[in-house]
Amino acid sequence: MYLGLEFKTLSAVPHFLWAVGGDRQIYLHVHGLEIPIRVKEESYENERWLPLEGFSGRLLPTDRYHFSTYDGTKDRSIDHIRLPSMAWQWEGDWQLELTLDGEPLDHDGWSYAIDFPAQFYPTKNWKSCVRRRKWIRYRKYSAMNSWCAIAPLHKDPTQEPFIDVSIGGNQMPYAPVGSLSVWGSYCTQSCYVQSRSPTGLVWVLLCSGRAMIRKGVTKDCPTGEIWLDVKSPNDTKLSVVSVGYNSVWAVSTDTRVWFRKGIDGTAAGVSETAAVGNSWLEVTGNMVHVSVGPNDQVFAVGEMDKCIYWRSGVAPNDPTGKRWRLIQAPMHLSRTSSLSSFNSTAPQSKHRSLTTLNEKTELKSNINLCNSWEESHSAPIEHTLPIKASAETTTDTKPDNSKNTGNIENIDLTGKSYETTLKNPRAWSPVRSVGSVVGMEAHPESDSSVFDIDSGLYYDDEVSQAAWGTCETMWSFVEAGACNIDPLQVPHWFSDTQNAINTDLISKWRIEILDNLKSRNSYPNIDLSVYGVAIEEKGWTRSCESRLLNVHGTFEDCILTVHWHSSENSGTMSVFNPDGATIKFILNLSEITSIITSSEPGCPRLTISVPNQFKDPIKIQFTSEMEQEEWLNTLIGIVAQINKLSGKPSTDSVWVVTNQGEILNWDPASSSLNCKMNKEGLYTKEIQVFGKDVIAGFTTILHNNFPPGSILKLSGCLHDVIDRFTINLLGPEIKKQRHKVQSEIDNIPFHFNPRFDQLAVVCNTKIFNSWGVEERYELPFIAGQEFSIIILCKQEGFQVIVNKKLLCLFEHRLSPDSIASVEVLGPLKLYEMEYSCTAPIVGPEEMVWRLMGGHLRRVESVGVVVWGIAHDHTAWVYTGGWGGGPLKGLGSNEGIHPMTDTQTYCVYENQRWNPLMGYTSTGLPTDRHMWSDITGKHKRTREHTKLLNRHWHWISEWIIDYNTPGGVDSDGWQYATDFPAPYHSKKLFTDCVRRRRWYRRAQLNTEGPWIRAGNTALVDISLWANNENVTVWAITLGGDALYRGGVTPSTPAGTNWQHVNSPQALTAVSTYNNILWVVGRKRRALLQRRHYNRKSNRWRLIEAPKFSFMFGEKTTSTIGVKVISLTEGIAWAVLYNGAIAIRSAVTRDQPEGQRWEHVTEGDTRFKQVSAGEREVWAVCAAGAVARRRGLATEMPAGAAWQFVLHVGAHHVSATGSRL
Amino acid sequence: MANDREVLREIWDGKLPVCFQLDQDEITEIQQPDPFYVMVPRLSYFPLVTDKRLCEAHYMSCVKEADMLKHRGQVMSTMQKKDHNQLWLGLQNDKFDQFWAINRRLMESHGDQDGFKHIPLRIYSDDGTFVQRLISPKNNDGSRKTLKQMLLELYPNKSEGN
Q1: Residue among A519, A530, A538 with most chain B CBs within 10 A, to mutate
Q2: For a Cys staple, A89 with which of A142, A397, A680, A926, CB 3.0–4.6 Å?
Q3: Mean of the pLDDT values across residues A1061-1090?
């Protein structure tokens, strides 16, 4: 944006751009944040009970201030809490916090205790001597997306003309997430320019060309210790220096480019040699300016052409790179106004590239490590919520007055304060008293024509086509501090030519060529049918040596062979013993329902589900990653071809994300192709009975239960000698803990039992293991004869027709929706068995799960729109494509985009104290491994931590985590009396053990049918659609609620986030039919809010679920809610102990529902649930995916879970499903 | 355009209807033999009509030579014997996917290289003679060379339309 203001220098980290203006003053531009920066000001009002007056603000002299901080040490009178600068505005007035740990307080918000400091309780009792309440008020940074002048040091700004400013330190080793530091320099004595790195390392150049570094800049000492001289390259003076993470680049006055060898950013604060490096190396090329990005990628401005260059091939093992590559960076001029802008003209490719380019490192690093769902190995863990609200951490980064020394002590609350009654917010100047030439004429939030809404890159197609032109620009300065490009996936517009690959695909010449090619094979004068084929279409065979997981849990050698005949659309997979002759098993490829990767580092594996043949999926280990990927690609292609799966799945799809981040899709529309509706509107499935003799019994699952309208037809032949036979329509299996876990069936809704000795048919119902009243009918069967039985389920009861004659109508005593299977007990021979239903019958063995491509942590679908969240909390939107990455070439290239994801690996260093040596890494023989995972059960060392496959690469070194939950000391240690015990940061006399956490981050580069949506880090998302209206709500990493504007089926990514205030930090969200439920971070509270219009901001607490019995144990306390999923009339919730509960009667008039009901039976614990209008799916803690059967209006909680997929799933979404 | 599967597939699927008729002089019987009709794939009929071993050896050496010119031989040298086999068998048996799974690597840019170093090219004229040249895929100004520019480079004398 050209503002009529000229800048001397720029310095940037993601979202924050500092500059020295032409007036030698410092300016700050905060941009690209999709949600406002809000800081919560808190003050505790303390009162003491005095005998006569009761509670009073007059406290004892030894007491804390009347208004204080949480710990009482500082005065926090609310009339003295002012805004730090005019760039801040208050959001509303001071308000009372009315909950304590999620429990509601009375309207005055007081909580009581015996004394300061002590445990505070919500109710007053006789020994309550003090009370306190918490006042909160939010302030918001209001100069977003605009230049804001930074207040100068002196009243007279000419006293301190700045010549340079530099921001960095956003990746300072061990520092908390979100810290930044800014250095400025002003010309009082000797001029210098300077640069600092993301790690905090500071280099300065004096006017004389001498270089210096600041020694000892660490997280605890951001200003460093002393200046050290660095020798310049021989016979030249340096004019520009730029510091990256592990590199320093410089340009000398004779335009030569220099690289400093031996810089190590991680150690620069503590090691002089790591900060100074060891020698200069000249790099070819003549440049006038150079700038290094946070990942050591280098940009420069050419000496002659004044064009921008990027250094290609820069990698950790080749820090100087290969060659300078010209970047297409034409300046785009708007014809409608004289403003110049950073917008570009090629709609899709460039805009996407820009989005990738603008991917914020801050976002990636905005991770706070804590294991909430403990995992027993050092595989990547999920990035869970930060302990501190990220709004606060981000604002830590916003110094309002920069000094010429480092300043991370940021917001000066009592310092210069500005009153904030802004009469006209559209025309205000950020600096009131001091001489600044820039005033903001427009307000970022009200004037979108000037300010981009979304990430500073709001893009309007039409405008771009019509109104933007380009001009050649002579560049003089480049700043790459906020530019974290991936050298392996360079944005398209980095290429030397304007032509991007994607534009070729839709260009006219290509389509013309394709059409010509298509038409060239038609020979109108020749009868092609007489021509034989030169090469016969034969099937092909593929074979490799691999290893198969056997029943003992070990892998044994085998030979895997696939034979595929494309034209017949059939094939087999065989597994041979290593001799190549004897076969282990052979299966039809059409029986495969899913193929996913299940690799461990160094062991590339595939998991293939064949539920028809094997209860557990087959696991195969390959000799190399390449081989595994080729097989994955081949098998998925074949399975998709057999099941006619391609492109975009239907809107009824169910989506599953595996623990390895793979995305699976089951499309009921394709499964129901095999199950056709007949003219009576019934779907029929023939059950394979193979004319077998049924003596011991034959049981088969009725996938759709047996609701009214269902029919079961049997025919067969009775044995000559027969006493009785039985047909049982069974209720759900329930897992029970006896001496061991076993499945039992308590209910038999319909028991049909012809007894030849009594010449009667006995019908009955078993409820909770006890039989009801028998109903007897005359026996219509004859021993040794053929028979046919038809059981029809009517509204009122079961109608049984034997040999085409009506036998009886047995009235329902239990809901037929709860029938899960049918059991036939002989002795008899079954010829045929047919099961008909009013809905398509699809069992787990017919659900084919297609791998869609990409890498995510969760997917939420509402049918027409599908969103995903990656492990690094970035949001992605499904493009409708299929393939990418290892699935290359399966689908078309349409909708396939590059994707990245980041995961964090953790290991724990454990030590035990002994009287001689103190803490050492020698533990007791019974101790855990001295390097372990969080449980201590598994040995994990830093050296042996390997990446999952070659698509992952490390993006950091091993770093001590100073943000481990529980707190750490100055070396990152946390102490405990013994393993395992609660850890604390301060060493106590009784502490015998200590541990510290190390982490290292890795990044995955892949492709998939997903495109980035915004750059705000999310933890949960919920979608709801009503025709064209799509509602998307999300929860940010910081716990804020967001509403996505502009989402429609044709624009699934929407346009922008709208922030909605909430009284506490949130963790989960669900929305349905204009009802919104969220879960607060305090777990207990469940909040709800109607949003008939989104402006209203009323939140209401919902009572916490409370059950007296759970998992066979007595519980007394309420259990927190972890996951919620709203659907028609009902809210499904997963509680923190893994149980599932439902809240019934949730309507628009009564959105808080009526009461909680415990759903889970047996001991299965769940980690997630997803409720659609007619489907409820869940993921159990062990990773199996389950589908709730028997859902009916009168049985909203359904009857039983049916496990459909055993693949180690992490997340399921059935919210789009309308089966 | 190694990633344009649609065009690649169309080119691959090109077939020639061929009718074999025995020369009148060769007919020794009274009855005229029926003509023999066959549809041959345009790209891979060669092994059908010549010595397979000879054909394979020639083909592989051509591919190696081309890779040398395109990528300084970096791709072929990293391939295993079974990849070479798959490439040849894919061509011989008219298996598009099998062939392109390997050939894709040969047709993509390699490493830091931006596109091919050179493109080996042979243009046949109607009279059966051919021109063989090494063509750089880029113009001097760095832009991608179009077919027309390339033809003009090879036949500078021929004006447009000829």
Answers
A1: A530
A2: A142
A3: 77
Cα angle: A396, vertex A399, A403; to 5 degrees: 140
Tell me the whole-structure pTM to 2 decimals. 0.70
Per the listing, tokens 């989960």 go with: A1068
Query: Which runs of consecutive H residues, i.e. helices, occur in A358-481?
Result: 361-365, 390-395, 461-467
pLDDT for A187-237, tens place per residue? 655 556 666 677 788 888 887 778 888 888 887 787 888 888 888 888 788
The answer to whether residue A149 is domain-embedded is yes
Mind listing the domains of chain B with CATH numbers?
A: 5-117 (1.10.246.190), 118-162 (no CATH)
A604/A577 same-domain check: yes
Whether A748 and A815 share a structural domain:
yes
- Taking every pair of Cα atoms in chain B, the longest distance, rounded to a whole number of angstroms, is 69
Taking Cα atoms as reference points, which of A37, A1207, A32, A109 lies closest to residue A659? A1207
Q: What is the nearest CA distance from B66 to chain A, expressed in angstroms?
A: 23
Q: Is the minimum CB–CB distance between A506 and chain B shorter than 8 Å?
A: no
Q: Determine, for residues A514 and B45 on separate chains, whether the beta-carbon distance falls below 8 Å.
A: no
Distance in Å, alpha carbon of B67 to nearest chain A alpha carbon: 22
- Please indicate, yes or no, whether residues A703 and A688 belong to a single structural domain of this protein: yes
Contact A1115, A1135 (CB under 8 A): no
Q: Backbone phi, then psi, for A151, in 5-degree steps?
A: -60, 135
β-sheet bridge partners, residue A1002: A903, A954
HSE toward the beta carbon, residue A813, CA cutoff 13 A? 20
The C-alpha atoms of residue A667 and residue A636 are separated, in whole angstroms, by 15
Q: Residue A319: how many CB atoms within 10 A of its CB?
A: 19
Angle (CA) A418 A87 A9, round 5° = 120
On average, the pLDDT of chain A sits at 77
Same domain, A171 and A122: no
Q: Please check whether residue A877 lies inside any domain of the structure.
A: no
Domain range for A297 is 7-33+144-326
- The partner residue sitting opposite A534, judged by closest CB among B7, B13, B38, is B38
Query: What is the phi/psi pair of residue A706, to 5°?
Result: -140, 55
The span from the CA of A966 to the CA of A1050, in Å, is 46
Q: How many domains does chain A have?
A: 5
Contact check, Cβ <8 Å, A517/B14: yes
Instruction: Encode pLDDT of A539-595 as tens digits.
Output: 778 888 899 988 888 888 999 989 888 777 788 888 888 887 788 888 888 889 999
Amino acid identity for residue A597 in this structure: T
Q: Which segments of A441-554 are extended strands (E)?
A: 468-471, 532-533, 540-549
Which of B8, B21, B36, B39 is the best residue to mutate to test the A interface, defined by the most A CB atoms within 10 Å of its own CB? B39
Query: Cβ B39–A526 below 8 Å, yes or no?
Result: no
Q: For residue A634, give how far its alpha carbon lies from the nearest alpha carbon of chain B (Å).
A: 10
Q: Is A499 on the interface with B (CB under 8 A)?
A: yes
Beta bridge partners of A194: A204
Tell if the CB–CB gap between A517 and B7 is shorter than 8 Å.
yes
Q: What's the order of all strands across the beta sheet hosting A858-861?
A: A858-861, A866-869, A875-878, A1010-1012
Give the tokens for residue A1136.
């923190």
From the CA of A311, how many Å to the nearest CA of chain B? 12
Q: Are A1061 and A138 in contact (CB under 8 A)?
A: yes
Nearest-Cα distance to chain B for A253, in Å, is 29
Helix (H) or strand (E) holding A1157, with range, is: strand A1156-1158
Does the CB of A614 have a partner CB in chain B at under 8 Å?
no
Chain A residue with Cα closest to B18: A531
Q: Contact A893/B5, CB-based, under 8 Å?
A: yes
Q: Contact B41/A534, CB-based, under 8 Å? A: yes
Cβ separation of A504 and B1 shorter than 8 Å? yes
Three-class DSSP category at A246: coil
Measured from the Cβ of residue A1131, the count of other Cβ atoms closer than 10 Å reads: 27
